[in-house]
Amino acid sequence: MKRVETIAEVRAQVRAWKAEGLRVGFVPTMGNLHVGHLKLVEAAREHCDRTVASIFVNPTQFGPGEDYESYPRTLDADLRQLEQKSTDLVFAPPVEEMYPGGEPRTWVNVEGLDQYLCGASRPGHFRGVATVVTKLFNIVAPDLAAFGEKDYQQLAIIRRMVRDLCMPVEILGVPTERESDGLAVSSRNGYLSESERSLAPELYHHLLQARDAIQAGERNYPELCRTMSRALEERGFTVDYFDVVNAETLAPAGPDDRQLVIAAAAWLGKPRLIDNMALEIVGA
Ligand code: PAF
Asked: Residue 244: what pLDDT?
């Protein structure tokens, strides 16, 4: 496995692979890798001849008061895990390599999709994500890039961006990796105390309950979401949102929508946990 810090080195390596006719897969990360990230690497490897991973804690997607400074930076452990998964190239640039002029003047805004769910409470977050992913795609020029379905809104925004801007990258969504009790694996789970950790899977359990209710015919989504939010609050969560949305537009779903996502975000002590579940309404 080769590790590089400059854009020029990534481009030279990828150019050489492409000259050999090899297909290149890409997994962008902010490091602090866990089994969910490694699943992304495995998925990219299955579809491609060479795999590139990036490790970059992107300052432009953190809002004021968010955890940019304290975000766990575990480069050595990350490199070991990537090596074990036979990653071919790791791009771990310093901030100045990605943002040489400081804050960029050019931003990628995927309008509309960023106003719902996490976008509503994290203004500017998805603009930072879309911008850095565009830069990384321009640097790596991958044939395919893998993203986790856990960050459903991020995945939907990137799919839309790639479509709108004719980016020549295939986007692969990879199912959420879960602990044995159902908690979605996340870098931020490390912030949970022992008692919070045992409560945390309730978020997933309430998504399952909401899914069962919808499958049993419930169509009053606002009322269903209010009930689920109240139940989570009673268990000790501070709910940011619990919504049923249209899977493509992310707008609140109406009774006629068929492709749905139930998405939730809630604080449990320090960390804000997110999770989601897709479902399709078949029949009436
Ligand atoms: O999902 C993440 O870790 C980040 O949002 C990403 C896609 C690496 C962009 O910084």
From this structure: 98
Give dist(CA 145, CA 220) in Å, integer: 37
Residue 163 shares a structural domain with residue 45: yes
Q: What residue numbers bound the domain in which 201 lies? A: 187-278
d(CA 110, CA 59): 19
Residue where a domain stops, chosen among 174, 208, 233: 174
Q: Are 263 and 272 in contact (CB under 8 A)?
A: no
* Together in a domain, 64 and 201: no
- What's the average model confidence in pLDDT over 207-228? 98
Last residue of a domain, which of 145, 174, 203?
A: 174
Test site for ligand 1: of 27, 29, 37, 187, most ligand atoms within 8 A of the Cβ: 29
- Name residue 239's amino acid: V
Instruction: Determine phi and psi for 49, rounding to 5 degrees.
Output: -90, -30
Active site residues: 37
The CATH number given to whatever domain includes residue 236 is: 3.30.1300.10
Same domain, 234 and 149: no
For ligand 1, the distance from its centroid to the CA atom of residue 132, given in whole angstroms, is 8
- Is the overall model pTM greater than 0.85, yes or no? yes
Number of the ligand 1 atom closest to the C-alpha atom of 158: 7
Q: Quote the ligand 1 centre to 277 CA distance (angstroms).
A: 20
Ligand 1: centre distance to CA 72 (Å): 14
pLDDT in tens, 48-66: 999 999 999 999 999 999 9
* Contact residues of ligand 1, CB 6 A cut-off: 28-30, 58, 61, 129, 132-133, 151, 154
Please count the structural domains in the chain: 2
- H or E element that contains 77: helix 75-84
User: Which ligand 1 atom lies nearest to the CA of residue 29?
Assistant: 8
